[in-house]
Design brief:
Elements (H helix, E strand, L loop, with lengths): L2 H28 L6 H10 L4 H28 L7 E4 L2 E5 L17 H5 L4
Antiparallel strand pairs: 1-2
């Protein structure tokens, strides 16, 4: 597998498992589908919001999720001497993901970035 495909494979899993799952859970709270006590309480509070307030809340939550993802990737980049994130295909030929990218956090937001290519959510 080429370095680009390996990097995109990581990006796709990262976006699916972290960004999309977080947004799914937020929307489940928003729509009253989560059953924990705290989720039910949040859902009940949100019911008082009008459509505009809900749209603003969605923007804030999506922005916050993207910011956390960016900050995690940036933290890895800034500490690459002390931290390694290895990736391989089928457990063979491990590569440091940071060496496969010009800037891991920058992989998120470009027109051809991971969010655009791999997320189910805008």
């Amino acid at each position: 597998m080429s370095d680009k495909k390996l990097l995109d494979s990581f990006g796709q899993e990262f976006i699916s498992s972290i960004r999309d799952q977080s947004i799914f859970e937020f929307e489940a709270i928003l729509n009253g589908r989560m059953k924990s006590k705290s989720s039910i309480e949040l859902s009940n509070e949100i019911k008082a919001f009008d459509e505009n307030q809900i749209n603003v809340l969605k923007k804030v939550v999506f922005n916050s999720i993207d910011s956390v993802i960016y900050n995690v990737l940036n933290m890895l980049e800034q500490n690459e001497e002390n931290m390694k994130l290895l990736i391989s295909q089928d457990g063979n030929d491990e590569k440091n993901i940071l060496e496969l990218s010009d800037g891991l956090s920058g992989e998120l937001f470009t027109e051809n970035g991971w969010i655009e290519k791999f997320s189910k959510y805008e």
